[in-house]
UniProtKB/TrEMBL annotation:
<dbReference type="InterPro" id="IPR020904">
    <property type="entry name" value="Sc_DH/Rdtase_CS"/>
</dbReference>
<dbReference type="Pfam" id="PF00106">
    <property type="entry name" value="adh_short"/>
</dbReference>
<protein>
    <submittedName>
        <fullName>SDR family NAD(P)-dependent oxidoreductase</fullName>
        <ecNumber>1.-.-.-</ecNumber>
    </submittedName>
</protein>
<comment type="similarity">
    <text>Belongs to the short-chain dehydrogenases/reductases (SDR) family.</text>
</comment>
<keyword id="KW-0560">Oxidoreductase</keyword>
<dbReference type="GO" id="GO:0016491">
    <property type="term" value="F:oxidoreductase activity"/>
</dbReference>
<dbReference type="InterPro" id="IPR002347">
    <property type="entry name" value="SDR_fam"/>
</dbReference>
<dbReference type="InterPro" id="IPR036291">
    <property type="entry name" value="NAD(P)-bd_dom_sf"/>
</dbReference>
Amino acid sequence: MNIVITGAARGIGKAIATQFATAGNNLILCARNIATLSQTADAIKLNNPSCNVHVFAADLSKVADANAFANFCLQWGAPDVLVNNAGGFTPGNVVDEPDDALKNMLDNNLFSAYHLTRKLAPTMIAKKTGHIFNMCSIAGLQAYNGGGSYSISKFALNGFSKNLRHELMPHQIKVTTVFPGAVFTDSWDGFDNSNQRIMVADDIATMIVACTKLSIAAVPEELVLRPQLGDL
């Protein structure tokens, strides 16, 4: 299968790519930092010799970069799986965060997925198959202190997913919105997770891969994952 994953150099994106690689899929990975992305690709290929891994450095918050990556992906035909995982987090509150906070969060967390999907979805429609995952957050389900524009952008991504699900349903293309709670990635640097208080990236990856193995009749529209002991 052709598996397209954005934000694939580290964290959740890297975990998703690593798990899809075990089945010998054709991975098409994107991230901003080509050095880190290449290291991830090399590690995946070392452990999975039958897996092809292609990398492309882009800032998907920019329309031109999103279009360029889409064209790169289409060298291998329509994606079977598209994971819109690229994004960022800037803490703040609506009333006192920087003036450009909302624009930056929307560009990174909404428009990156919006523009890439718009370029790739028509090829999936023509093929009448495919599965799109949009990496949202529990911040897209409820407000919280310090969420600010990040939370707003994830609510917007949630709305994008709902509309996409409705539009693509007749074309046999599945859309799943993923709402993770706290996951032990670089953003939690310094946090002591020795007691497994919060989730790990492989937890999210395992669920995404499992969703792709369901029959054509089934789609998990929303996937909410939280630490067993609840949100922090």
